[in-house]
Every structure is written in structure tokens, then in C-alpha cells.
DNA sequence: ATAGGGTTAG
């Protein structure tokens, strides 16, 4: 009965609207309106648009509104504007639909300009449908002062009590970390819905107050997937995967957002195995992944370094409907293939990029470096400079590490000079560690020692460790002892340093020293880490 | 016709 009534009233509303603009035929308007509802892509929207024009229905307010909201759905704000500009007398509803299309997909200034145009051109003042879009645009840009002036306008229009407007305001203040403003608006609200509560949770999560976010979550009368996922995401970002997991297990209906929150949460916290397990659970439930899930999966796979897995993931993504040309998916894929040793694939993905960026260059260079092709890494570095890209501090870390692994002493030195003299980058402890490693491996132990002692910043254990490793390779006992003594001070419990010195003694047949060192270790309660060998 | 959730990578 209610369905019948509703469809009747929709038809009636259409008829009224049609009569106000004198349509050629109300039945064609109805059929086009029905066609619009079933529209599934931008291409089919374009076809329907042609039909709208052909049938003379372009000025029909209901058709125009529906058309504009489909432009919003397919992220086509420019298309919405071009159609809107041909309307002779758009009413407030049509204006609101245009504003919504832009609020979701255009930069804030464009949306604000449109709002000002609406105020000047539309015969009616903005209503409760106007402000939520405008505010959401302010929220996404975290434009506190602009949004506050919108709030003032809302008060002048007497619209602050509207649930949609008020929820949008709460969301806005929450996103701007103005939790006190959000809270006063929230506490004095007579009727809230689940979106209102979720806006508060999101605000507290974003400002890092997980305790209050949890209190809101526990207090709310009904929850949906968004309530859970916001909190899961907050816990995951704070590294509390245990709490995230408990909520995830409690969530009755998981959507792709909740799955990706867990997968990327584990991946980002260095638990690639757990990330993979969650993904497999999702996969076995035949849930379609999206690009966020896939990026998390690839990140986990990079950390595991398994070529077999990387090949499977690659094939899986190729067969899915995920757009591999999207920048972050591509970056994750290049990184995964590089780290897992599929350099051909990494290189071909890299070549497919129209605009190669610093990060993709670095991913590929690191891959070559890791797999013993330092010369290829250096070739890429030269190509990068020729392309006019500006290397940053991390780029040089990758490049210097590549030189060090490949024993390219001269190139490494040149790069260090290039970094400091031309790019004016202050060398970090990491850069020094690379240089010490580079010189040390090449047997220039004295030079390396001089470098480490002349560092203007405090060298970290990695630099000393690299030098101690070099002393072992080149059998320098006296320097080795000096460096080891330094390292025992900096990191007294790292067994690796004791093992290295012990190996130096062993190679020189100084077994008494080996034995003494072992006693020293036992005395300090240090146990050797599996994987290190005593000769 | 309107408000809510997610990867800054090397």
C-alpha cells in the first residue's frame, strides 16, 4: 500500500512539475526519468542526456535535478555545470543539486563561488539542503574560518536545528579538531541519528582521543559499519591492533572499508602475515576488493618478500576491476615487485607511467640495488636527473646504499658531493653510514674511520656497525677492537657486535680472545641471536 | 536534492 502511494505521489509530483514548464509530453518525461534511475555509467548518462535534449526535456526541473545528481555520482562536476548553464530558470532544488555535484568533486573556492552565485541568482534563499554540501566541502578542506562564517549564515537563516545541517556542522567542527564546538552542538541536539554519532566518533578519532571516541561508541543507541570502522581505523593507526581486532570480530556486517582498515592496519604496523591472513579471509568470502585493500595487500607482500606471493597478487590485481594506473596502486605494485625480486615486472610498470615521480624512481632503484644491480640503479638515477626531477634526502640514501652494495666507490663519493654541494642537503646519520659502509667495504678503513670521526652529527650504531663489518672483511684487528668497544657502549645488548669482533679474532686464530669475549657476553646475560654464526 | 568511514609510498 505504502509503495503504491509513494509511486503515485512521485508521478503526481512529476506531473505538477511538468505542467509548470509546459512539457511536450509527460509520458516521455516519465520514461526518461526511469531511464536515468537505471543509469550505471558516465557513458550511459551521456546517451540519456542526448535523449533528454532530443525530447525537449532539458528544462524539466525534475529531470535536470536527477541528471545533476548522476553527474555527482560519476564525478563529473564540469558536465553538471555545462548542463546547468543551459537552464533558463533553475529553481532552488536544481541549484542545490549543482552545488552538491561540485561540493564532492571540485575545489572549495569553486564550490564557494557557486554558493555565492546561488544567493544572488536564485529567487529563494538557501535552505536546509544547501548547507550540508557546502559544509562538507569545508570539512574536507579543513577550512575552519570559512566554515565558521557558513555557520553564521546558517544561524541567520534559522536552519541550525535541521538534523542534516546540524550533523554537517558537527562533522565540520570535528574534522577541524574543534571538538568543543562539535560537542556543544551535539549535546543540545534533541534528535540525533547514527550519522550524527559517527561524526562525533570520527572527530575524536581524528584528534587522537580514542578514549572519548570509545565512550561515544559505547553510548550510542545503534551502530553501523561506519561506527566500527572509524574506531577500528583509529586503533590501527595508534598501533593497537588488538583492540582493532576485537571490534572487527564484533562487527556483524563488514564492508570493504572495514576489511581494508584491518589489512592496511596490520601492514603499516609491520605485521604482514596477519594482514595476509585477513585478506585471505576476505578473499574466501568472495568479497570484491578495492584499491585500498590491494595497496595494503601489496605492502604486506613487499615486507614478506616472497616472489611467489607477489606473482599471485600481481595476477589477481590484473584480473580484478582495479585500476592499476592509479598512482598509489602503481607505486605499491612497483615497490612490491622490486622488493620481491620481480624486476622485469617492476621495470615494465615503471615504464608504463606517463609521469614518473621521485618515489617510483626510488622504489625501482632500491629494487636494483637490493638484487645486486647497482649499475642499473645508477643508470636510473642519471635518467632521473636528466628528467629534471629533484632528488631529496631519501633519494640520496637509496643512491648511496646502491653504490655501497655495488662497490661503486667513486660514484658514491660523487653523489655525496652532489648532494651536499649542489642540492644543499645536510647529510643525515644515514647518509654517513652509507658512506662509511662504502669506504669500509672497499678496504679504505682509515678513510672511513676519519669520516665517521669528522661527522658533525652523532653517528648512529648503524655507521659504527658498518665499519666493524668492514674490519671483519679486511681483518683489521686493532681498529675492530676500537670500534667494537664504542659499539658495546652504544648498544650493549646487541649480540651482533660481539659476534663480529669474535669473528675477527677467530680469523686471526686468537682463540683466547674469542673465549674471553664469550665469557664477557655470558656475564652480561647476552645470548647470541639465531642466524649469527660463531666460527 | 542534503550530512558520515579509508593508502604520503622510497
Automatic annotation (TrEMBL):
UniProt-recorded Gene Ontology molecular function terms: RNA binding
Similarity section: Belongs to the PPR family. PCMP-E subfamily.
PPR repeat copies, ranges: 193-227, 255-289, 357-391, 392-426
InterPro entries to which the protein is assigned, alphabetical: E_motif (IPR046848), PPR_At4g14850-like_plant (IPR046960), PPR_rpt (IPR002885), TPR-like_helical_dom_sf (IPR011990)
UniProt keyword terms in alphabetical order: Repeat
Pfam assignment, any one: E_motif
Any one of the GO BP annotations: RNA modification
Origin: domain of life: Eukaryota
Keyword Repeat among UniProt keywords: yes
Protein name according to UniProt: Pentatricopeptide repeat-containing protein
Amino acid at each position: 500500500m505504502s509503495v503504491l502511494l509513494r509511486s503515485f505521489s512521485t508521478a503526481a509530483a512529476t506531473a505538477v512539475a511538468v505542467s509548470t514548464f509546459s512539457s511536450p509530453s509527460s509520458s516521455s518525461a516519465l520514461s526518461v526519468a526511469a531511464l536515468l534511475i537505471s543509469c550505471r555509467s558516465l557513458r550511459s548518462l551521456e546517451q540519456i542526456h542526448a535523449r533528454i535534449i532530443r525530447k525537449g526535456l532539458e528544462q524539466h526541473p525534475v529531470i535536470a535535478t536527477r541528471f545533476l545528481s548522476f553527474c555527482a555520482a560519476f564525478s563529473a562536476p564540469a558536465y553538471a555545470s555545462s548542463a546547468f548553464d543551459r537552464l533558463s530558470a533553475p529553481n532552488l532544488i536544481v541549484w542545490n543539486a549543482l552545488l552538491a555535484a561540485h561540493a564532492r568533486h571540485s575545489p572549495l573556492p569553486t564550490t564557494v563561488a557557486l554558493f555565492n552565485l546561488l544567493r544572488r541568482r536564485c529567487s529563494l534563499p538557501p535552505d536546509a539542503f544547501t548547507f550540508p554540501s557546502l559544509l562538507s566541502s569545508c570539512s574536507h578542506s579543513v577550512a575552519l574560518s570559512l566554515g565558521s562564517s557558513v555557520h553564521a549564515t546558517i544561524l541567520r537563516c534559522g536552519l541550525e536545528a535541521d538534523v542534516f545541517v546540524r550533523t554537517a556542522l558537527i562533522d565540520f567542527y570535528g574534522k577541524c579538531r574543534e571538538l568543543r564546538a562539535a560537542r556543544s552542538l551535539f549535546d543540545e541536539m534533541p534528535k540525533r541519528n547514527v550519522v550524527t554519532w559517527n561524526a562525533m566518533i570520527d572527530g575524536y578519532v581524528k584528534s587522537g582521543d580514542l578514549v572519548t571516541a570509545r565512550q561515544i561508541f559505547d553510548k550510542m543507541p545503534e551502530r553501523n559499519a561506519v561506527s566500527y570502522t572509524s574506531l577500528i581505523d583509529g586503533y590501527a593507526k595508534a598501533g593497537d591492533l588488538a583492540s582493532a581486532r576485537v571490534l572487527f570480530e564484533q562487527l556483524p556486517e563488514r564492508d570493504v572499508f572495514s576489511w581494508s582498515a584491518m589489512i592496511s592496519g596490520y601492514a603499516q604496523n609491520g605485521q604482514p602475515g596477519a594482514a595476509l591472513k585477513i585478506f585471505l579471509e576476505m578473499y574466501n568470502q568472495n568479497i570484491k576488493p578495492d584499491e585500498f585493500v590491494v595497496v595494503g595487500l601489496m605492502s604486506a607482500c613487499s615486507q614478506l618478500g616472497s616472489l611467489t606471493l607477489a606473482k599471485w597478487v600481481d595476477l589477481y590485481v590484473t584480473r580484478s576491476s582495479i585500476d592499476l594506473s592509479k598512482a598509489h596502486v602503481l607505486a605499491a605494485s612497483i615497490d612490491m615487485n622490486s622488493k620481491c625480486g620481480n624486476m622485469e615486472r617492476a621495470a615494465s610498470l615503471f615504464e608504463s607511467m606517463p609521469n614518473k615521480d621521485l618515489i617510483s624512481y626510488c622504489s625501482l632503484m632500491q629494487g636494483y640495488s637490493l638484487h645486486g644491480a647497482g649499475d642499473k640503479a645508477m643508470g636510473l638515477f642519471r635518467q632521473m636527473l636528466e628528467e629534471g626531477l629533484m632528488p631529496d634526502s631519501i633519494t640520496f640514501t637509496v643512491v648511496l646504499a646502491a653504490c655501497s652494495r655495488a662497490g661503486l666507490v667513486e660514484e658514491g663519493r660523487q653523489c655525496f658531493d652532489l648532494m651536499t654541494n649542489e642540492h644543499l642537503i645536510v647529510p643525515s646519520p644515514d647518509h654517513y653510514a652509507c658512506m662509511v659502509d662504502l669506504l669500509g667495504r672497499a678496504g679504505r678503513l682509515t678513510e672511513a674511520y676519519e669520516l665517521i670521526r669528522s661527522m658533525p652529527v652523532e653517528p648512529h650504531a648503524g655507521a659504527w656497525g658498518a665499519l666493524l663489518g668492514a674490519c671483519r672483511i679486511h681483518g683489521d684487528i686493532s681498529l675492530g677492537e676500537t670500534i667494537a668497544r664504542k659499539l658495546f657502549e652504544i648498544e650493549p645488548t646487541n649480540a651482533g657486535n660481539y659476534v663480529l669482533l669474535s669473528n675477527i679474532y677467530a680469523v686471526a686464530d686468537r682463540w683466547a680472545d674469542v673465549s674471553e669475549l664469550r665469557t664477557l657476553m655470558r656475564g652480561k646475560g647476552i645470548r647470541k641471536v639465531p642466524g649469527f654464526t660463531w666460527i
